[in-house]
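As noted in the main text, all predictions were made from sequence alone. Below is one such record, for Malate dehydrogenase.
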Amino acid sequence: MPFAPTEVTMTTNPLVTFKDVDYAILLGMPRREGMQRKDLLRANVGIFKEQGDALDRVAKKSVKVVVVGNPANTNALICAHYAPSIPSRQFTALTRLDENRAKAQLASCTGVAVENVKNVCIWGNHSNTQLPDVAHGYLVAGDREVPVADYVADKSYLQGEFIKTVAMRGAAIIAARKLSSAMSAAKAVADHVRDWHLGTPNGEFVSMAVISDGNMYGVPPGLVYSFPVAIDKKGGHRIVSGLDVSPFARAKLDATTAELQEEKREAFDHIVHQVAAVPAVTAKPVMHGAQPATPAQGSSVSTN
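Prediction:
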């Protein structure tokens, strides 16, 4: 159902930001030129821990969360972990940007309109270990549906340069403009939320990083992993089952799984070290006649 915002509120207080929200789109700190993924992970881990806690406290329990800030998969996992009262399946990470890039590459080399490239999906992490997969994709040409593998003559391209171009596009954008992607990322968020809200057409699937529990593709539970998903008209998503995975794809899926497991370990180790580094605060008694302390800048005081 279409809707229009009735109010826009700007605030730095997450408890205000997330109060009774239906959708939360989380950005975090952007990647800059020269930053490694580990730098970004350490910068964002505290942000997504705080946002998860705030969502848990004040958001609707039906809230749908889209994590955009990188490393998006692991940030979504952290956020979900610190919002235990919200079902983990309602936390997702954005890999639609990668899917859109993959479809654009195929449209460019085949001459087919990008909206007529269907069922191309992204497996795994939103990183250069991802697998842009065309094995189940097809192109709509007139009244025909032609498998991508039949339309693209150069098979080595689909397992080589095509994958590299899509997986490395983020780094190429940063190198070119010294900043991460902007409008293309915003368009991908809009596509992600639209399909989550309205559902996907029958027979079609899209890429979405979701909790890996219960998948049939050998991905261990406890990760946020990009799969092909279908979404019903009520917003319920499911991992598409029964897709063949070639030996080539299996090796790629295992590699991106290993990276996500390492990111998960490092993220939670960093949180533990952050907590351990915070010095204990001992309350000091207020002497008779003393004035109460003035709240520090950035803190808030509520009164009844």
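Residues 213 and 221 are 4 Å apart (CA to CA). DSSP finds ten helices and eleven strands in the chain. These features were considered when defining construct boundaries for the mutagenesis experiments described in Section 2.9.
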